[in-house]
Design brief:
Layout (H helix, E strand, L loop, with lengths): L14 E3 H19 L1 E6 L2 E7 L1 H37 L3 H10 L15
Parallel strand pairs: 1-2
Antiparallel strand pairs: 2-3
Protein name: Prevent-host-death family protein
InterPro entries: YefM-like_sf (IPR036165)
Organism: Luteibacter jiangsuensis
Length: 118
Protein backbone atom coordinates (compact mmCIF):
# COMPACT_ATOMS: atom_id res chain seq x y z
CA UNK A 1 0.00 0.00 0.00
CA UNK A 2 1.59 3.27 -1.13
CA UNK A 3 1.37 6.12 1.32
CA UNK A 4 1.30 9.65 -0.03
CA UNK A 5 3.84 11.75 1.79
CA UNK A 6 2.22 14.79 3.33
CA UNK A 7 4.59 17.11 5.14
CA UNK A 8 2.69 19.10 7.72
CA UNK A 9 4.10 21.87 9.84
CA UNK A 10 4.65 20.73 13.41
CA UNK A 11 1.91 23.13 14.56
CA UNK A 12 -0.58 21.35 12.28
CA UNK A 13 0.11 17.84 13.59
CA UNK A 14 -2.01 16.29 16.33
CA UNK A 15 -0.58 17.05 19.77
CA UNK A 16 -0.64 15.18 23.03
CA UNK A 17 0.85 16.29 26.32
CA UNK A 18 3.66 14.24 27.83
CA UNK A 19 1.52 13.82 30.95
CA UNK A 20 -1.21 12.20 28.79
CA UNK A 21 1.38 9.85 27.31
CA UNK A 22 2.31 8.84 30.85
CA UNK A 23 -1.36 8.40 31.80
CA UNK A 24 -2.48 6.55 28.66
CA UNK A 25 0.67 4.53 28.23
CA UNK A 26 2.10 3.14 25.02
CA UNK A 27 -1.22 1.68 23.86
CA UNK A 28 -2.87 5.09 24.08
CA UNK A 29 -0.05 6.68 22.11
CA UNK A 30 -0.27 3.95 19.48
CA UNK A 31 -4.04 4.49 19.16
CA UNK A 32 -3.42 8.21 18.48
CA UNK A 33 -0.72 7.36 15.96
CA UNK A 34 -3.03 4.79 14.36
CA UNK A 35 -5.50 7.57 13.58
CA UNK A 36 -3.06 10.02 12.00
CA UNK A 37 0.29 8.25 11.54
CA UNK A 38 2.07 10.79 13.69
CA UNK A 39 1.71 12.72 16.92
CA UNK A 40 3.64 15.54 18.57
CA UNK A 41 4.38 15.05 22.26
CA UNK A 42 4.45 18.36 24.10
CA UNK A 43 5.90 19.38 27.41
CA UNK A 44 4.44 22.58 28.86
CA UNK A 45 2.77 23.20 25.47
CA UNK A 46 6.13 23.12 23.64
CA UNK A 47 6.85 20.38 21.07
CA UNK A 48 9.31 17.90 22.51
CA UNK A 49 9.12 14.90 20.17
CA UNK A 50 7.33 13.60 17.10
CA UNK A 51 6.35 9.94 17.11
CA UNK A 52 5.73 8.38 13.68
CA UNK A 53 4.18 5.12 12.62
CA UNK A 54 6.53 2.72 10.83
CA UNK A 55 4.49 3.31 7.65
CA UNK A 56 4.89 7.09 7.91
CA UNK A 57 8.62 6.75 8.57
CA UNK A 58 8.94 4.44 5.55
CA UNK A 59 7.14 6.97 3.33
CA UNK A 60 9.50 9.73 4.46
CA UNK A 61 12.55 7.55 3.77
CA UNK A 62 11.27 6.59 0.30
CA UNK A 63 10.60 10.24 -0.53
CA UNK A 64 14.10 11.21 0.63
CA UNK A 65 15.65 8.40 -1.42
CA UNK A 66 13.63 9.42 -4.49
CA UNK A 67 14.66 13.05 -4.05
CA UNK A 68 18.28 11.98 -3.65
CA UNK A 69 18.07 9.87 -6.82
CA UNK A 70 16.66 12.80 -8.80
CA UNK A 71 19.40 15.04 -7.41
CA UNK A 72 22.06 12.46 -8.33
CA UNK A 73 20.68 12.17 -11.88
CA UNK A 74 20.91 15.93 -12.36
CA UNK A 75 24.37 15.97 -10.82
CA UNK A 76 25.52 13.10 -13.05
CA UNK A 77 24.31 14.95 -16.15
CA UNK A 78 26.12 18.11 -15.06
CA UNK A 79 29.27 16.11 -14.31
CA UNK A 80 29.10 14.48 -17.75
CA UNK A 81 28.79 17.86 -19.52
CA UNK A 82 31.71 19.24 -17.50
CA UNK A 83 33.86 16.20 -18.26
CA UNK A 84 33.14 16.57 -22.00
CA UNK A 85 34.18 20.22 -21.95
CA UNK A 86 37.24 19.46 -19.87
CA UNK A 87 38.25 16.69 -22.28
CA UNK A 88 38.16 19.16 -25.17
CA UNK A 89 40.55 21.43 -23.24
CA UNK A 90 42.90 18.53 -22.59
CA UNK A 91 43.04 17.43 -26.25
CA UNK A 92 46.43 17.67 -27.98
CA UNK A 93 45.20 20.40 -30.32
CA UNK A 94 43.51 22.52 -27.63
CA UNK A 95 46.24 25.15 -27.62
CA UNK A 96 46.17 25.46 -31.40
CA UNK A 97 42.38 25.78 -31.42
CA UNK A 98 42.49 28.50 -28.76
CA UNK A 99 45.19 30.47 -30.61
CA UNK A 100 43.19 30.18 -33.85
CA UNK A 101 40.09 31.45 -32.07
CA UNK A 102 41.98 34.37 -30.52
CA UNK A 103 43.46 35.36 -33.92
CA UNK A 104 40.00 35.41 -35.52
CA UNK A 105 37.80 38.48 -35.89
CA UNK A 106 36.38 39.92 -32.71
CA UNK A 107 33.26 41.45 -34.24
CA UNK A 108 30.06 39.54 -34.26
CA UNK A 109 28.30 41.65 -36.88
CA UNK A 110 25.83 43.04 -34.37
CA UNK A 111 24.72 39.59 -33.23
CA UNK A 112 24.83 38.27 -29.71
CA UNK A 113 26.64 35.00 -29.29
CA UNK A 114 25.62 33.05 -26.20
CA UNK A 115 24.65 29.60 -25.01
CA UNK A 116 26.19 26.17 -25.54
CA UNK A 117 27.51 27.06 -29.00
CA UNK A 118 29.76 29.97 -28.06
Amino acid sequence: MALTLKLDAIEDLPHTAASDVKKLGWRGVMRAIGRTGKVVVTNHSEPEAVILSAEEYGAIMRALNDAGSQHESALDALRHRFDERLASLQADDAGDRLRSLMRGPTTLGGKVKAGDTH
